[in-house]
Amino acid sequence: MIAIQLRRLPHGTGLPLPARATADAAGMDIVAAEDLVLAPGAWAAVPTGFAIAIPPGYEVQVRPRSGLAFKHGVTCLNTPGTIDADYRGEVKIILINHGPAPFPITRGDRIAQLVPAAVQPAEFVEGDTLDETARGTGGFGSTGTR
Ligand SMILES: O=c1ccn([C@H]2C[C@H](O)[C@@H](COP(=O)(O)OP(=O)(O)OP(=O)(O)O)O2)c(=O)[nH]1
Ligand SMILES: [Mg+2]
């Protein structure tokens, strides 16, 4: 368990904090802080009304809610979104409407979910050769016809 500091912004007053819908849910649902309508094909950065300070060594992933995707064609455009540990601005959700109808969002609607994750530190080490593997340079469907 890690603690993520959260600062509520003025327009987030009264909104629920990110929360799991069930005890063992991976995602913590977050709600919209304003009303808007997403036209078919349109996207918007939807405010959440809070900012966070993630401990170094962690990130928070912003993931779509499958219900919105399946029922309405509404998803996160940049999924999974990345909230960096050093970001102190408002968390925003970039939603896109792939559906055929305008999609109204009401302040307080659950629009996405946050999944905290550990970040694996790594560095790229440049060299002239790479070790050989069975796959080699094959990719993009090289292992079959489908
Ligand atoms: O869905 C998202 C994705 C990102 N962010 C915020 C937090 C993140 O730390 C910052 C930058 O995101 P990212 O690195 O994905 O975007 P970028 O285009 O690389 O911007 P930057 O140059 O600011 O890193 O924007 C959000 O609020 N919601
Ligand atoms: Mg970036």
Automatic annotation (TrEMBL):
<feature type="domain" description="dUTPase-like">
    <location>
        <begin position="16"/>
        <end position="144"/>
    </location>
</feature>
<comment type="pathway">
    <text>Pyrimidine metabolism; dUMP biosynthesis; dUMP from dCTP (dUTP route): step 2/2.</text>
</comment>
<dbReference type="InterPro" id="IPR008181">
    <property type="entry name" value="dUTPase"/>
</dbReference>
<feature type="binding site">
    <location>
        <position position="78"/>
    </location>
    <ligand>
        <name>substrate</name>
    </ligand>
</feature>
<keyword id="KW-0546">Nucleotide metabolism</keyword>
<dbReference type="InterPro" id="IPR029054">
    <property type="entry name" value="dUTPase-like"/>
</dbReference>
<protein>
    <recommendedName>
        <fullName>Deoxyuridine 5'-triphosphate nucleotidohydrolase</fullName>
        <ecNumber>3.6.1.23</ecNumber>
    </recommendedName>
</protein>
<keyword id="KW-0460">Magnesium</keyword>
<keyword id="KW-0378">Hydrolase</keyword>
<dbReference type="InterPro" id="IPR033704">
    <property type="entry name" value="dUTPase_trimeric"/>
</dbReference>
<comment type="function">
    <text>This enzyme is involved in nucleotide metabolism: it produces dUMP, the immediate precursor of thymidine nucleotides and it decreases the intracellular concentration of dUTP so that uracil cannot be incorporated into DNA.</text>
</comment>
<feature type="binding site">
    <location>
        <begin position="82"/>
        <end position="84"/>
    </location>
    <ligand>
        <name>substrate</name>
    </ligand>
</feature>
<dbReference type="Pfam" id="PF00692">
    <property type="entry name" value="dUTPase"/>
</dbReference>
<comment type="similarity">
    <text>Belongs to the dUTPase family.</text>
</comment>
<dbReference type="InterPro" id="IPR036157">
    <property type="entry name" value="dUTPase-like_sf"/>
</dbReference>
<keyword id="KW-0479">Metal-binding</keyword>
<dbReference type="GO" id="GO:0004170">
    <property type="term" value="F:dUTP diphosphatase activity"/>
</dbReference>
<feature type="binding site">
    <location>
        <begin position="65"/>
        <end position="67"/>
    </location>
    <ligand>
        <name>substrate</name>
    </ligand>
</feature>
